Amino acid sequence: MPPLIIAILLLQGTFLGIFWRQHRHEVEQIEVVTTQQVQELMQDEMERDVAKMDTAMEVIIRDRDLADALARLDRQGLVEQAQPIFEQFRTKHEITHFYFHQPDRHNFLRLHKEQKGDLIDRSTIQTAERTGKPSAGLEQGPTGNPVLRLVYPWRSDFADLLIADLFADPRAGNLIGYLELGIEFEDIARRIHDILNVELIIVVDKSFLDAQRWDARNRKLGRQSNWDEFTDSVIIDTTIAEIPVEVSELIENINPETEQIRINQNGQTRQVIAFPFNDINGTKIGYIVALKDISVDVQQARQSSLIALILTLGIGTGLVSLSYVFLGKVEKNLSDRTRKLASAKDSLAASKAQLEEYSHTLEQKVKDRTHELQSNNHVLQETLQELKKTQVQLIQGEKMSSLGQMVAGVAHEINNPVNFIYGNVTHAENYSQDLLGLVQLYESQYPDPAPAIEQEKEDIELDFLKEDLPNLLRSMKFGAQRIQEIVKSLRNFSRLDEAEAKSVDIHEGLDSTLLILHNRLKDKGDHTGIEVMKEYGQLPLVDCFPGQLNQVFMNIISNAIDALTEFNQNRSIEQIKANPSQIKISTRAEGDWVIIEIADNGPGMSKEVAAKLFDPFFTTKPVGAGTGLGLSISYQIITEKHGGKLICTSEPGQGATFTIKIPK
């Protein structure tokens, strides 16, 4: 009986240990997800703000009046024309900085403050000066708050170019200056706080700040200076009213790597995470400390542990009681069984001889059975692999079908109103010219209008309206044309209505894929642009599944972009200029085959990696950045759906080339 009780107690202890370990693992996973969410949302918000400022920039630099005012160094004219635009940006889009710089990088006008005339030597404007293209990134100034900035070089001929051609030749036209917009990092932090419901503390290294200018900025904003609170860093902004002592100690003694601690205060449990953030040059300028309330998770853990303990003790007590009753019955029947065993002894002797005979043949039977089991196991392994591949194909097929339906639906819904707008803009231009002509005729025939008419002309700013209305209508027409091009590319890429094989132009699918990936290919300040070289040959129309073939193009070109982007992060500016990133797409017809080659000049890969490239779930990307399914599915689409070939040729340091062969 005692050994049984000991065994039951050991089982109880084992069960509680496993339960507690599992619970701790789940809580740790929740903490990791919280860290990833803060970092990923911060990156998404910064990219969204750059895109927002980029859209505003493309409109502003096409304004001929603003360009002329800057070229003439007419500060008052710039203020009168740009101040209403800045007020709208600040109210609707949280854009807090608006600069006009001269070609020598001296500031000509700050709309958000009185200072002017100083030389601007920030990395964003130096990059724009060096490349002739827009530059964007996070920069830390001496007064405290980091600012996400976007700088555009402004040339004299931008007002006459299409939006798509603005930076096709960065040296065209005369440089009249630089236009700069900025959004304070504090506003981005507030959005992260509202979305994730986490408290944030932004900490910056003192070496990037000027103590006197820091104190002056705090006095202007009505904040209390805390310059001497920490030895090496200072808090520039926080969403929490009172910083706990444990968090202050973490900030004072923060390690270079990401830190996580847990604090308890006033019955509340908080998870504290700290991770560094960098400026446009990759220099670490400080840390973001996030506090997440996990009181509910801790309380649930305690309740679950208590319930598990009660259940385990109850079950153990029941087992001991049942064992006691059962062992009593066993002891009663033991004497009866002893007598029966004596009579069975003789039968056992007879059976012994038979067992000896069986033992001679048992070894052979075991070998035969083992061989049979190994054979069955091999068949089961092959079946399991086939089931996994089929499952991946079904899931990916369903995803692509859903994506295609959504893209086609959105394209259809957008196309109708855009066609309506585009078709009517031309009429609106003609009508506006007729009306403006009529107004001009009235002015020539009646040069001295009534005071009420003269007052109305001043109220509506008739002279400005006559100049701005044609520009406004032309901008609307350019915008509608661009939306039509994007909608056409989306419909060509999804090819939802072409589930069956049909004859298509391969080049059309490649161009649609490149247009969709255009945003990842262009230069974006901290992201060096990738040049696409197209060497298209004469190809016949090819019988294929267009939607699935476009999926293959998307997977291969996206992988090439990822490889080149990661490669450039480890190279200097001089190395990138000496050997710029390129993707070369060439097509040709050979015999009965149509051949498409997609090559990059990235880092390449070893033979071992290339041999596993088309295996399901194999990936060289970090956890969470890739599934390992893209190239595996692409291989099946080319070989099984089209009867073709997909080949990868690569060596370390020599880039990678993917060759697609499809029967004509």
Kindly summarize this structure in a few lines.
This protein is α+β, with helices and mostly antiparallel strands. The chain is built from 16 helices and 17 strands. The protein has helices at 2-60, 64-71, 75-93, 123-131, 185-196, 211-221, 245-252, 295-445, 451-460, 462-494, 506-516, 518-521, 546-569, 573-578, 607-611, 630-641; strands spanning 97-101, 107-110, 135-139, 147-155, 175-184, 199-205, 233-238, 259-265, 268-278, 284-293, 502-504, 531-535, 542-544, 582-590, 593-600, 645-650, 656-663.
The strand line-up of the biggest sheet is 2-1-5-4-3
Structural class: alpha+beta
Report the radius of gyration as a whole number of Å.
36 Å
Quaternary state of this entry equals single chain
Query: What's the tally of helices?
Result: 16
Gap from first CA to last CA: 81 Å
> Strand count, sense and closure of the main sheet?
5 strands, antiparallel
Using the alpha-carbon principal axes, give the shape.
Answer: extended
Percent of residues in helices comes to: 55-70%
Uncertain residue segments: none
For the secondary structure, the number of strands is 17
Output mean pLDDT. 80
Strand content: 15-25%
Task: Describe, in plain words, how this protein is organized in 3D.
- By secondary structure, the protein is an alpha+beta fold.
- Helices cover about 60% and strands about 15% of the residues.
- It has 16 helices and 17 strands.
- It has helices at about 1-60, 65-70, 75-95, 125-130, 185-195, 210-220, 245-250, 295-445, 450-460, 460-495, 505-515, 520, 545-570, 575-580, 605-610, 630-640; strands at about 95-100, 105-110, 135-140, 145-155, 175-185, 200-205, 235-240, 260-265, 270-280, 285-295, 500-505, 530-535, 540-545, 580-590, 595-600, 645-650, 655-664.
- The strands form four sheets. The chain has a five-stranded antiparallel β-sheet, with helices on both faces. Strands 7-6-10-9-8 form a five-stranded antiparallel β-sheet, with helices on both faces. Strands 12-14-15-17-16 form a five-stranded mixed β-sheet.
- The protein starts with a helix and ends with a strand.
